[in-house]
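INSTRUCTION: Work out how this chain folds

Token vocabulary: learned, describes local backbone geometry

RECORD BEGINS BELOW THIS LINE
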Amino acid sequence: KGSRRMAIVYKNAKDVKVGGVKIAVYGGAGIGKTRLCNTAPKPLIVSAESGLLSLRNESADYVEIKTMRDLDEVYKYAKSADCTHETICLDSASEIAETVFEEFAKNEKDNRQAYLKMGDAMIHAIRNFRDLPNRHVVFNFKMKMVEDESTDSIFYVPMAPGKMIGHQVPYMFDELFCMQIKKDGTRFLQTTADRQRFCKDRSGSLEKEEPANLTSIIDKIIGT
């Protein structure tokens, strides 16, 4: 019998369509990441922390995550035809991971096993949300300062419990921003890397510093 050869289908990058913008943002405590979520188009804020107090005077839809099952239910809603929200915001993915770790730790004598299970579950969940079709998704992360003793330099990275998530986050997204604040109190998103912060904008549509408004950023990326 002759061997069957698989036909290779050639495509052109110009034909790639944006099926929702996926953004990861990291920043220090109190920088305004939760309020940033409410600047996205029709957002649903998925929260595991008490930081929603900053939105007490604003209209914002949200759900609280207490277990991994809760997160799975939000994902099912987000990919369903019943979803009326344009943007799903995980605020913060770091806190959600910590909540999931506590859930696994209750059933594991060794915390290392709990960290491994949490890491596997959260990486799978992050990929699922990242790959949602026709939805914008924003992942907020806490920020960690890392010191390089060999060069006496300091740099900042997204933070999550365990090693697995934090190491993979920079590689999982086309849009990775660091939220900062200027001396006059203006908040902005850094979109390109420097010596202290790893950021990227693969759309090529953004300035090095963008105002902290997700609707404006998403409009630039999709070209409206």
Q: What stands out?
A: The chain has six helices and ten strands. The mean pLDDT is 88.
